[in-house]
Amino acid sequence: MILRAKIILPVTAQPIEDGAVFIDGNKIRSIAPWKDLRPHRREKVFDLGEVILLPGLVNAHCHLDYTDMAGELSPPKTFTDWIAAITAAKSAWSYSDYARSWLRGAHQLLKSGTTTVADIEAMPDLLPDVWDATPLRVFSFFEMTGIKSRRAPKEVLREAVEKMDSLRHPRHRAALSPHAPYSTLPELLRLAARTAQKRKWRVSIHVAESAQEFEMFAHARGEMHEWLKRNDRDNSDCGLGSPLAHLARNRLLGENVLAIHVNCLARGDATLLAKNKTHVVHCPRSHDYFAHPKFERERLANAGVNLCLGTDSLATTRMMGKQKPELDLFAEMRSLADSDRKISPEEILQMATVNGARALGLTKKIGELTSGANADLIVIPFPGRPGKIYETVLAHSGNVTASMIEGRWAIPPIH
Fold first, then answer.
1. pLDDT reading at 136 higher than 70
2. Residues near 167 by beta carbon (within 8 Å), at least 6 away in sequence
3. What pLDDT shows up at residue 137?
4. Is there a single domain that holds both residue 27 and residue 84?
5. How many whole angstroms separate alpha carbon 183 and alpha carbon 83?
6. Do 61 and 51 belong together in one domain?
7. What are phi and psi of 121, to 5 degrees?
């Protein structure tokens, strides 16, 4: 088929006015101005009209499991208060609650323009059933902890690997997620790193998220340190440097690693991330919910770190009046633009597309419109002038006009 649009926005190339995307099966064959195409009779042409056609968004960090917790947890005074609150909330949920929440979150992402999501899965038993219920491309990162349950790291990892090995799907993938440095033991980090390297898997980990976590690892003190000590965590790994230095000691930095949040940096941390080619995922609305210190985007970018965007969960997204928030990467882009006046709209869109693709090992496959890439794309209205394309993209709110994943309409265009 051929898709014609007022504006084609490839992200990795200049916008094309009155352009067309030629799709062959589940791949993009070519992109060109409409006047340069000579369609054959066998090719179906969709003239989408006054719209912007751009790559499907790549949500590099999400918790679909917690979608129905939207508006349930007020912003906490401290990070450890929030851990206690969400732990209590989760204890009251059933399998059905999690399944319903997951599916609702997937639907919210789809209608708001995400086509690929890196999701932290706390309930692996939901898979593969929920996979089969969504057209999204899903990376399910299996959450691993072991502190509260007092389970041996080898047992925690073995269980995750066995579940992953039982799953086979042409579009979805399973991956590993040691939850965070404070909620795991160093042995689990090392085992996860070694297994992921051997299996060529991606790894996602929350790290340097709060000032309390930073104080725990850098100085072996503070509320989180004492709270976990009371819960029998062996804190002998604390007082040796920043949380990121902790990951480096345990060999859990690398090109296959997504470091989530990274809100608290020590001197040298940005260079350490760049040297190891570790990706960083920023979640602007979650960052605002916790009132974390300013995200040091410029410092990380200047060091050469690949920066991506994620929604995190709705359990950590502020209510806007009486309206419950929804998972929406466009809302995250606008939140970043509001909080960081030095970043351009082009850079923000790259964080939500091509940078996320790179973090997931899918460069030139998703997150951009280019020859040979998967036909993952979305369509939004374009009421403005060609010179304001990126600003128009960031200003978009509400549902996308259409969505396609691997050459199939996930949300068909309305004619």
1. yes
2. 127, 128, 174
3. 98
4. no
5. 11
6. no
7. -105, 110
Tell whether 276 and 379 lie within a shared domain: no
CA–CA separation, 85 vs 88, rounded Å?
5
Whether the predicted pLDDT of 331 surpasses 80: yes
CATH number, domain at 50? 2.30.40.10
Same domain, 336 and 376: no
Whether the predicted pLDDT of 39 surpasses 70 = no
SS3 annotation, 310-349: CCECHHHCCCECCECCCCCHHHHHHHHHHHCCCCCHHHHH
Q: Are residues 292 and 304 in the same domain?
A: yes
Task: Output the pLDDT for position 301.
Answer: 97
DSSP state of 414: P
Token couple for 287:
């960052």
List, for residues 203-238, the tens digit of each pLDDT value. Answer: 999 999 999 999 999 999 999 999 999 988 999 999
**pTM for the structure as a whole:** 0.96
* Dihedral angle sign, alpha carbons of residues 70, 71, 77, 83: negative
* Average confidence (pLDDT) over 375-393: 89
Same domain? For 80 and 227 the reply is yes
| Unique residue bearing structure tokens 């054959």 | 40
Give me the residues paired with residue 259 across strands. Answer: 205, 280
367/10 Cα distance (integer angstroms)? 9
C-alpha 204, offset from chain centre: 10
Mean pLDDT, the chain, as a whole number?
Answer: 95
- Tokens 């990162």 correspond to what residue? 141
Give residue 90's domain range: 57-359
Query: What DSSP designation does 26 have?
Result: T
Quick one: pLDDT at residue 146? 80
Same domain flag for 292 and 403: no
pLDDT at 387 over 90: no
Q: Do residues 146 and 153 make contact, with C-beta atoms less than 8 angstroms apart? A: yes
Tally of domains in the chain: 2
The pLDDT > 90 percentage for the chain reads 88
Tell me what pLDDT residue 201 has: 97
Q: Which pair of tokens denotes residue 99?
A: 């399944």
Both 41 and 82 in a single domain?
no
